[in-house]
Specification:
The protein is mainly β and 308 residues long. Helices cover 7% and strands 48% of the residues. It has two helices and 22 strands. One of its GO terms (biological process) is sperm axoneme assembly.
Length: 308
């Protein structure tokens, strides 16, 4: 055990002898250990017990080891004696793992502790040099005996990156160790997946549909990120797309008529033709929900075309 300059007593108890025995305690060791017993050679009756006291008087700034020999009949029992000088015993967690984060300039914080299991204060120092947005506080200090100190590690997830950094930690009376700082920063991605094989969809294909009828297609909306996300479906009739079935060799008068037709259909509310259910919500991390798309071409398009 740890000791200071004052003597520390320890007791050795011998009991339950089954016959009369002579207890001899030769003490070969050092003056740091002192055995206190009125009679070193005594007879102990069966069923009785006696107590011996050992005092430890440290005279050097170093750990001491010895042994106490107890002779009981023809047997000798060895009792180790260990005297430790006061010291600190600092311990720190070896890793700070932020896990998977979403890029967005948000600052994340993790806390670890430096624990002192010893009997005297201990000094620590942390050194970290890198271009990454990682801040450690405090980087030095004193941990009192039988207590701990909280160390905060801040990390700004400003861009997608895989972080695997090391900070040098110096603990008193211990070799230097390295604190591993890890994180995986990803983009917040929402994806549309095929309901049959979970493959990513670039578009929803309704195929051929008659006027006055409806065609339904289903897909999975997937939050492929570690944080919740709010979503809303907005129908845009002016988005960039691909025009199919256009005859680039047609006459000028036919092309002008088509331009008039395009002007008319642009005034139609696209939500009356294509709808999405549900059209808004909140997705938890890595959650998938089923959404339904409905395409309903209206005969009124033909009527409007006939009134030109």
């Amino acid at each position: 055990r740890d000791s200071n300059t004052s003597p520390r007593p320890a007791r050795a108890r011998v009991s339950r002898c089954l016959e009369k025995s002579s207890i001899k305690t030769p003490f070969p060791g050092r003056i740091s250990f002192k055995l206190i017993l009125t009679n070193l050679d005594k007879t102990l009756a069966s069923g009785l017990q006696t107590t011996a006291m050992v005092e430890y008087h440290p005279d050097k700034n170093e750990d001491m080891c010895d042994q106490l020999l107890i002779s009981v009949g023809n047997k000798t029992i060895e009792i180790p004696l260990i005297g430790l000088i006061p010291s600190c015993q600092l311990e720190i967690e070896p890793e700070v793992n932020f896990g998977t984060l979403v890029a967005g300039s948000k600052v994340y914080c993790k806390e670890i502790s430096i624990i002192n299991h010893g009997s005297v204060p201990g000094i620590f120092k942390i050194e970290y040099q890198s271009q990454l947005p990682i801040v450690i506080f405090p980087t030095s200090g004193v941990v009192q005996p039988k207590s701990s100190m909280v160390i905060k590690v801040d990390f700004c997830a400003d861009q997608p990156i895989v972080v695997n950094e090391y900070a040098k930690v110096s603990l008193q009376d211990r070799p230097d160790i390295f604190l591993n700082i890890r994180a995986h920063v990803v983009e917040q991605i929402i994806e549309l997946l095929n309901i049959n094989n979970d493959e990513k969809l670039e578009c929803i294909s309704f195929g051929s549909v008659f006027f006055g009828t409806s065609k339904i297609e289903r897909a999975l909306l997937y939050n492929n990120s570690p944080e919740p996300i709010n979503w809303v479906a907005i129908m845009q009739d002016d988005s960039v797309g691909e025009e199919l079935g256009t005859n680039i060799k047609q006459r000028t008068d036919v092309a002008l008529n088509n331009l008039a037709y395009l002007r008319k259909i642009k005034s139609i509310d696209i939500t009356t033709i294509i709808s999405c259910v549900p059209n808004e919500g909140r997705l938890l991390p890595y959650q998938k929900i089923l959404i339904t798309f409905c395409f309903s071409p209206k005969l009124i398009l033909i009527v409007q075309l006939g009134r030109r």
